[in-house]
Design goal:
Shape: globular
Number of strands: 7
Structural class: alpha+beta
Length: 150
């Protein structure tokens, strides 16, 4: 298995994987345009030349980044791939000297097992919410907020 940065040719597979879970109400959907625009933030797990997991680390400010769109192909669940991606993003954040990483998620228990703690969404800086106005669930966000100090 290889964890690597995503390429433009990966977008359709990433889009399908994320939206598979979005269709089930387990995460938010992502538009193709958003994936293309943020391709440099996205990492994938590749196995036998096939993308089996994805996620991204989005930098918001000098002291804060967000893990976004973390998804593992259903047949590869419970094999530690999500945790491995989270660890990869946390290491990347450390290398960038970012002191905190958060996630907005429908799966807070997963992130808690990765060392995050649950927080009140309102405690996050206003900058976090600038993209939320484009969300179909805005302003009734059902996601939980989790954060880790590095």
């Amino acid at each position: 298995m290889l964890i690597r940065k995503a390429k433009i040719s990966d977008v359709e597979t990433i889009h399908a994987l994320i939206n598979y879970y979005a269709d089930k109400g387990l995460m938010l959907a992502r538009a193709r345009a958003t994936l293309y625009e943020s391709i440099r933030e996205i990492s994938v797990v590749e196995f036998d030349s096939k993308i089996i997991a994805t996620g991204s680390l989005h930098i918001l400010w000098h002291d804060l980044a967000e893990i976004r769109a973390l998804a593992v192909a259903p047949q590869y669940l419970r094999q530690g791939l999500g945790k491995k991606l989270v660890q990869t993003f946390l290491q990347e954040a450390r290398e960038l000297e970012l002191p905190r990483v958060f996630a907005l998620t429908y799966q807070p228990e997963f992130f808690i097992k990765c060392g995050f703690r649950e927080i009140n969404k309102d405690s996050l800086p206003q900058k976090v919410w600038q993209e939320c106005v484009n969300c179909p669930k805005f302003p009734n966000c059902e996601e939980s907020a989790v954060i880790i100090d590095l």
